[in-house]
Every structure is written in structure tokens, then in C-alpha cells.
Please model this.
Amino acid sequence: MSIRNKYEAALAEMEAKLVKMCRMTECAIEKSIRALTSRLGDLADEVIKEDREIDNMEHEIEGDCLKILLMEHPVAGDFREVSAALKMITDLERIGDQAADISELIFQFGDEPFVREPRLTQQMAALAIAMVKDSVESYLNRDLALARSLDKRDDRVDDLFQEIKSDLVALIREEAKNADQAILFMMIAKYIERIADHAVNIGEWVEYAMTGTHKIG
Model:
């Protein structure tokens, strides 16, 4: 097998692991929101424990990327592809962390009934999960249009965050005892907003891999 063929085989293996890591992070977000809405402490614990597996996957892919770069002197396109993957796994690992953070907050609700059913939070999470999935799909399919679409989709997540924020502020003004839960819901919404931001980051690294241009800010 030529060095080039070895490189392409190693790249394909790394990308397969990247897809697996993405699926793990998608699953973590889904589980954390289901644990919240269904008040499932065991499921929240599962997300927290599985975050270590996502961390391990990041380290494994990082090692694979560095080995690929050492196989031969990469041309500019090769270097950009592997560099983008290295950046992407950092964002995916942080998404996993934020799903675990949401799960940890769930225990702080205790057994008290929700002051507000988290319908908008579920909507935010669904949008963020779809963005994470499409950010990696844009890399695997070299789909520049899909990568660039993420920034606009993030605007809807931001709008929902503002809507949740306004609703929670109103709840606190209505009854001071709502404040503790309102703060927890606000933190959860903020984590979801960050997850969507990480999906946008991944899309920007896809654009860099394909064009050599990286959007700043």
C-alpha cells in the first residue's frame, strides 16, 4: 500500500471515529433533556458517567490526527482537513461536558413540581441537536452550504433563549419563590445555547478545511 493510500485509509478510520463521537454527544444531549423533562435521575447519572467516554474518544481521535500528519508531508488541503478535525473534536468534547452539566443541574430541582413545563427548552435542545448532527455531516460530505447554514439556524436558538429568559424573569416577578427553579432553567438554556454555538464553530472549521478561510468572531 502506498503512503498516500495509507493516509487515506487512516483518514477514513479517523472520520468514522469522529462520527461515533458525534453520535455520542447527540445522545448525551437527548438523554439530558429527557432526564430533565421526565425527572429521571438515573438517566442523568448515565449522561454524567458517559461523558468520560466522550473525553476518551477525543484523546483517541487527537492521537489519530497527529499520526496522520506524521505519515507524510501533508499538502495544504490535507493539513486543513486534519486541523479542522482536531478543532471539531474539541467542540464535540465541550458539547458532551455541557450535556453532563445539564444533567448535574437536574438533581437540584429535587422533588418539587416544575414552576413551568420546559417546552421551549425542549425546542431549543432539538434545534441544537440537529445543528450538531449537521455540522459533522457537512464535514463528512464536504457540504459548504450546510456548514454555512448553521450560523443562521443559531439565530433561532438565540431567539428561544431570549424568550425563555423573559418568561423566567416574569415568573420571578410574579412570585419570588420561583427564583431557585428559574435560575436552574436559565442555566440549562444557557448550556443549550452554548451547544448550538459549538455546532456553528464546527461549521466554520469545515469551511476552513474546504476553502482555507476561517471566519473570526
Observations:
- Helices lie at 3-38, 41-71, 76-106, 119-140, 144-174, 179-211.
- The chain has a mean pLDDT of 92.
- Residues 55 and 93 are 6 Å apart (CA to CA).
- The chain has six helices and no strands.
